[in-house]
Amino acid sequence: MLNTLSGRFLILTTIFVMLAEILIFVPSIARFREQYLQDRLERAQIASLALLADDMLETELEAELLQNAGVFNVVLRRDEVRQLMLASPIPDPIAKTFDLRDASAMVLIRDAMMRLLETNDDIIRVIGEPVRDAGLLIEITIEAAPLRAAMLDYGLRILVLSAVISVFTAILLFAAVRMLLVRPIKGVVGYMQRYAAAPEDARGIIKPSATVIELREAEDALQKLQMELTHALKQRERLAQLGGAVAKVSHDLRNILTSAQLFTDRIEMSEDPLVRRLAPKLVNSITRAVSLCEGTLAFGRAEEPAPALIEVPLCQIMEDVVDSEQLAAGDDPVQILSEVPAGLEVRADPEQLYRVVMNLVRNARQAIAATGKEGHVLIRAGEQPTSWWIEVCDTGPGLPPKTQENLFTPFQGSNRKGGSGLGLAIAAELIKGHGGEVRLKRTGADGTAFEVSLPKGDQIVDTQKNS
Question: Reaction catalysed by this chain (predicted)?
Answer without folding.
Answer: ATP + protein L-histidine = ADP + protein N-phospho-L-histidine
